[in-house]
Design a protein that fits this description.
homodimer; about 240 residues; alpha/beta; 60s Ribosomal Protein L30, Chain: A; 3-stranded mixed β-sheet; about 20% strand; rRNA_Methyltransferase (chains A, B); transferase (chains A, B); methyltransferase (chains A, B); SpoU_subst-bd (chains A, B); TrmH family RNA methyltransferase (chains A, B)
Chain lengths: ~240, ~240
């Protein structure tokens, strides 16, 4: 909630209205005050209404109605971007939101929701991002090829995170590859990236598996990939 | 299922019985054959029974009854161990299982379930580990101080993963600290590690946050920490 208000304060979006239960208003007087100070209309609601509005079984009792968080690709992929996370065909909103959180933590400049990826405004995605959807530019591009063109035009090297890639990211990093401006492309948890997508990118790398596990899940793989780039770019 | 049978084949545990639905047996004839070949009793069950046995809403139709996967601390923490993940007070079984999967992928030698951490045999934990509970030694130690003593005796440096630590793991890695035999200690998603636990360990490190996120979730933080050590130890 604080993140939404801070985001609106920068002029990048708007909080239209805040719905709050009596209990939540008592617990979070600072949030209500900040909303009022920002000129946001605050309305009291019942617990039942808050639950219905927040589409969750354990609502926090505060619901903000915001303008969409996504921006046009040209606004997100400005010249000078160094690290971008691209989700391709990620259907699970919790996974998508967790990757947004990881990308934000790793200092990524933007997250691209490409192809048939879930809507970033899905409630589970917003919650899993723990406010990060308000921190960095989110852009949606239905046509993945168009997204890749935009990323290349912004000077980014497109790297598929692919568990079946012959090379791992440590090897690539030792060669200096990860220091380049990079867009990491992540596929769905269930199927990974389609072969033709991998083939259309500039490189594909796997997270090395040193033990008996077959793979990592999407969010943990994204964490290792994005942090490897973030570190290499800052070295 | 294959992991359970492979685990039993090494003599580290036993698969007592396999319950399988008709549909699942048709889909996975190799699993049924492997079980029969291994001398495991295979029993047909209804979909309803399989659902009840597996305690999940989307059962796969195959349920194995296994001996416990956990081993005594002395068996898990043998001299020469280099990388261990320790869960302290982690209540969420899905998070615990995901960390087991990450630890396995990063080549950790063992996972310690310490203090009030969830039971590793919890169905959600086993499922989230995607078979990894069968790949590396899991040990449970109720008394966290006792667990830490055992880890130190095995020659491990105890490092708290603590979002509030003054130093980050990149700084420590550049100094060479992560190449040492290390036990990473992870706290609960909700509260992290208690201050007295952090104070009782040899060091505390945070994952650097380069962007606007407040923190990482448990599994993604564990991925960054464990992979940083795995890489440093192999460099």
């Amino acid at each position: 909630m604080r993140e939404a208000l801070a985001w609106a304060a920068t002029g990048r979006g708007e909080v239209h209205e805040l719905f709050v239960t009596t209990v939540a208003a008592t617990r979070n007087p600072d949030v209500v005050r900040a909303a009022v100070d920002a000129g946001v209309r605050v309305s009291g609601v019942t617990d039942k209404a808050a639950a219905a509005l927040s589409e969750t079984v354990t609502p926090q009792g505060v619901v903000a109605v915001c303008s969409p968080v996504d921006v046009p690709p040209a606004e997100a992929l400005v010249p000078g971007v160094r690290l971008v996370a691209v989700l391709h065909g990620v259907a699970d909103p919790g996974n998508a939101g967790t990757v947004v959180r990881v990308a934000d933590a790793a200092g990524a400049d933007a997250v691209v929701f490409a192809g048939d990826t879930v809507d970033p405004h899905n409630g589970k995605c917003v919650r899993a991002s723990t406010g990060s959807v308000f921190h960095l530019p989110i852009t949606r591009v239905r046509d993945a090829a168009e997204a890749f063109d935009g990323l290349r035009s912004a000077g980014l090297r497109l790297v598929a995170a692919d568990g079946h890639a012959p090379e791992d990211l440590v090897t690539a990093d030792l060669r200096g590859d990860l220091a380049a401006p990079t867009a990491w492309v992540f596929g769905s948890e269930a199927h990974g990236l389609p072969d033709d997508v991998v083939a259309s990118l500039d490189a594909s790398l796997k997270v090395p598996i040193y033990g008996g596990a077959e793979s990592l899940n999407l969010a943990t793989a994204a964490a290792v990939c994005l942090y490897a780039s973030a570190r290499a770019q800052r070295a």
